[in-house]
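Input record, target 12 of the design panel.
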């Protein structure tokens, strides 16, 4: 695995950490948000050896207060190292507590059950579908509004893909449609496939087209709406 040692700065006080496999086009991401109320690491990279390469970045900016997960599968042994090094517990939806407990022994800082303001400028938006407790996070800054989507909504080359648990398909599609009403200018997923990397910028029209295309792929309907996404060129 390879990664940048310092992370890619994608906005003021926001860094993207990348875990790559040179044998495949698949990339995994974590995001480090520097915040006056305490720094936040969103879904730590699962390979602890890769995550440790960013230790100096974390320490330089005052450590980490919270480890935030969009869903249970993002928990891993890396979370335990972050807690040991910086004292940061996990923050996630309580409905995903069972898978979190299976994947890590990291202490829980807070398990919530509804949408809320996490810290100034950062909101939790529960969106059952990928898992029962899946939660997106919306970060509003002076220059852009980012939506952290985990792997509920991710870019794959020139298309968008949604991952919805079969038994939650109806509510998952409803929540994907609900995302069209959420104002954001860029998607920050936990993974992508292709040459482009975060942020994946989308206009309002592109946002709707990306979601409709992802839903069409889920329901096996012909993709008639826009398949192009923003972000870095391929």
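The sequence produced for target 12 reads:
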């Amino acid at each position: 695995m390879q990664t940048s040692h310092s992370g890619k700065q994608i906005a003021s006080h926001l860094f993207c950490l990348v875990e790559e496999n040179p044998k495949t086009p698949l990339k995994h991401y974590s995001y480090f948000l520097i915040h006056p109320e305490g720094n936040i690491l969103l879904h730590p990279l699962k390979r602890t050896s890769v995550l440790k390469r960013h230790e100096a970045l974390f320490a330089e900016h005052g450590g980490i207060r919270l480890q935030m997960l969009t869903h249970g599968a993002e928990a891993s042994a890396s979370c335990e190292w972050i807690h040991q090094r910086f004292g940061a517990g996990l923050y996630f939806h309580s409905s995903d507590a069972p898978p979190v407990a299976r994947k890590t022994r990291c202490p829980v800082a807070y398990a919530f059950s509804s949408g809320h303001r996490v810290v100034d400028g950062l909101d939790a938006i529960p969106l059952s579908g990928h898992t029962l407790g899946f939660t997106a996070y919306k970060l509003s800054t002076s220059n852009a509004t980012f939506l952290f989507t985990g792997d509920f909504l991710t870019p794959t080359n020139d298309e968008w893909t949604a991952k919805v648990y079969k038994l939650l398909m109806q509510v998952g599609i409803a929540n994907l449609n609900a995302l069209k009403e959420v104002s954001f200018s860029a998607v920050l997923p936990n993974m992508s496939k292709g040459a482009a990397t975060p942020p994946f910028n989308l206009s309002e029209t592109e946002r709707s087209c990306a979601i409709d295309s992802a839903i069409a792929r889920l329901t096996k309907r012909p993709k008639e709406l826009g398949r192009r996404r923003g972000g870095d060129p391929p």
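Confidence is low (pLDDT under 50) at residues 222-234.
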